[in-house]
Write a structure and sequence with these properties.
Strands 1-2 form a two-stranded antiparallel sheet. The relative contact order is 0.05. The chain has 116 residues and is mainly α.
Length: 116
């Protein structure tokens, strides 16, 4: 616990250094992930090259378009879904509950309840 307190004290004492250290570590992790991803993409594209028609297995434009598409999907995932950050209406509807009725033991009636 003393080490944690010491680390927090040191990081808050020099915020500029802390920011540079954190950004450097984040960029290093990202670069490693990108390198592993590109290497994996090259290996799998060579293996799947027989399935591609009209495009080479290592077409740079294809890699760029795929990377941009994945980046846009990641950004879009973090955006709010409705107007002014409101979730879609279906997000406020409670789950369907079933209740037994007097008609039969095996008959279930669905009821919907609205969450306000």
């Amino acid at each position: 616990m003393r080490d944690l307190r010491y680390a927090i004290r040191v990081l808050t004492a020099r915020p500029a250094f802390s920011l540079v250290a954190i950004v450097t570590l984040a960029l290093g992790i990202a670069a490693g992930g990108i390198a592993i991803g590109v290497a994996g993409a090259l290996v799998t594209s060579r293996a799947l090259g027989a399935l591609l028609f009209g495009v080479s297995a290592t077409d740079p434009l294809t890699f760029v378009v795929a990377a941009v598409g994945l980046a846009l999907a990641g950004v879009a995932r973090g955006l709010p879904t409705g107007a002014a950050g409101e979730p879609h209406r279906s997000g406020r509807v409670a789950a369907v509950t079933t209740k037994n009725t007097k008609r039969s033991k095996h008959t279930k009636k669905a009821s919907f309840s609205r969450v306000s």
